[in-house]
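Why does residue order matter? Because the sequence determines the fold. Keep that principle in mind as you read this record.
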Amino acid sequence: QVQLAESGGGLVQAGGSLRLSCAASGRTFSAYMIGWFRQAPGKERDFVAAIRWSDSGSLYSDSVKGRFTISRDYAKNTVYLQMNSLKPEDTAVYYCARSPRVTMIPHEYDSWGQGTQVTVSS
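Structure:
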């Protein structure tokens, strides 16, 4: 069993940056995709980015491509989401989760963390 915990959210002005962390305890991430998703009030949970733990192969949604970067640290068993050039529409609760597949579909992920709030003011 693996437990995921997100951190690093906060309030930032448009154009600013934040770095989110997704730390794993229990079993490691090996052989999994680790994904970041976000959910704004009244909206569905949307895919943001994912990384394959074994070789850092990554996926991004079109809405964040070129602004967000996903990475991982073997030693710390942690996945990061560096978010630059933030926009008010990036405001949401951000979650991390894992999947055995290369996928952007939320229901193919499990072990969801509790989420971290990101608020971007205009």
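The chain has a mean pLDDT of 94.
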